[in-house]
Write a structure and sequence with these properties.
alpha/beta, binds beta-D-glucopyranose, four-stranded parallel β-sheet, 379 residues
Length: 379
């Protein structure tokens, strides 16, 4: 009887999960109608009877807010379904993440959810999981060079780059202007497949303007190899920006910082302040990714122009349906079976839709969507 109730509950919750879309039309509303904000706070979900199964969640770092939210959301949603959760952060240390996953396997995890520090560095430990019949779900970042991964929940990573590119294109009216604009690039970590995809999407939009001279990159650093930043380091972004400003922008202002991450936007902001730029006067257009709380506050204050909103609550919903698929035999919703070839297989994926946010739409998308409250943004 107990088992039957549990299975009914799981079916109901799964049905709710499947009903979730990740597009802008969802406007960030959580799937289950609860009032949880980005960090998972708000109405607590009703605890379910234990399934007796343990899901281990390996997250890359707590140095950036989004991963803390991702971890909290996953924990909360899995626990609400009766799973025991082992959530661990590797603080961007590849070897630490390998050890954590080894321990997760040894301590009897039934399923692994992994957001990798270095997407190619986990091949051996993933093989160990496979040999122990522990299914793996890739979370946000694709796991490369392994056939041990069952599903991948992420955002449309090329779409993130395209959205950033289109934002710059429209904001500066690149297609019609007679002006030229200076631009520098701050791209993601070379060991993260997402970073390359973002770059490709961004350049699909911006390369024609570099080619026809509307955009001028005075450092000459436009390739992914020249602009990528290992482990998404804010400090390196700041350093690079400082070097560009002193090396190439003594006589002419920098107009655009095309960055792939809110952390990079903070680094550029610090470098620009140090170089004497002023918000509202000669401050460049600065892009970002994740719509972190700090970034959203900076957007309101004018020291960052836009960010890419990725609703981690919805990503967690999608990932949880994948966990249920491998543990309970359900079918998760998949919307991409082409783009994510990890070198061993094309991983069945669900891509959530990223949304560009700026001062004109943050209220509608972020506040009305319940991601942050007005109070959080005013603190
Ligand atoms: C994620 C981004 C995030 C970046 C840095 C990427 O893998 O997709 O959302 O900004 O890592 O943490």
């Amino acid at each position: 009887m107990k088992k039957k109730i549990l299975s009914l509950m799981l079916t109901a919750v799964l049905a709710m999960g499947l009903a979730v879309g990740c597009g802008p039309a969802d406007n960030g509303q959580p799937a289950d109608g609860t009032a949880t904000t980005a960090d998972g706070s708000g109405d607590a979900s009703t605890p379910a009877a234990s399934t007796g199964k343990r899901v281990a969640v390996a997250m890359p770092t707590q140095s950036s807010e989004r991963w803390i939210n991702d971890g909290n959301n996953m924990k909360e949603k899995l626990e609400a379904l009766g799973y025991e959760v082992d959530l661990q952060y590797a603080e961007d240390d590849v070897q630490a993440q390998v050890s954590q996953i080894e321990n997760m396997i040894a301590s009897g995890a039934d399923c692994l959810v992994i957001a990798a520090v270095d997407s190619s560095a986990l091949v051996n430990v993933e093989q160990q999981a496979k040999e122990a019949n522990i299914p793996i779900i890739a979370y946000d970042r694709l796991l490369m060079d392994t056939d041990a991964v069952s599903y991948y929940a992420t955002f449309d990573n090329k779409g993130v780059g395209t959205a950033i590119g289109k934002y710059i294109e429209e904001a500066k009216d690149l297609a019609n202007t007679d002006e030229t604009y200076t631009i520098e690039f701050f791209m993601g970590s070379p060991d993260d497949n997402n970073a390359v995809m973002l770059y490709n999407g961004l350049m699909e939009v911006l390369q024609p303007y570099l080619d026809n001279g509307t955009l001028v990159c005075k450092s000459g650093r436009t390739s992914f190899e020249d602009t990528c930043i290992l482990r998404w380091s804010q400090e390196t972004a700041q350093q690079n920006c400082e070097n560009y400003l002193t090396g190439f922008y003594a006589d002419e202002k920098l107009d655009i910082c095309a960055t792939a991450f809110d952390g990079f936007a903070y680094g550029c902001k610090a470098a620009l302040e140090g170089a004497g730029y002023t918000v509202g006067k000669d401050w460049p257009l600065i892009t970002g990714q994740d719509a972190e709380l700090m970034a959203t506050k900076n957007i309101i204050a004018g020291s960052q122009t836009m960010s890419i909103y990725k609703d981690t609550r919805l990503l967690a919903d999608k990932c949880v349906t994948m966990v249920q698929a491998v543990l309970e035999g359900a079918d998760p919703e998949i919307n991409d079976e082409e783009q994510y070839d990890n070198g061993k297989l094309v991983v069945p994926s669900y891509l959530c839709t990223p949304v560009a946010v700026d001062k004109d739409n943050y209220k509608e998308i972020i506040v009305d969507g319940g991601y942050y409250t007005e109070e959080q943004l005013a603190e």
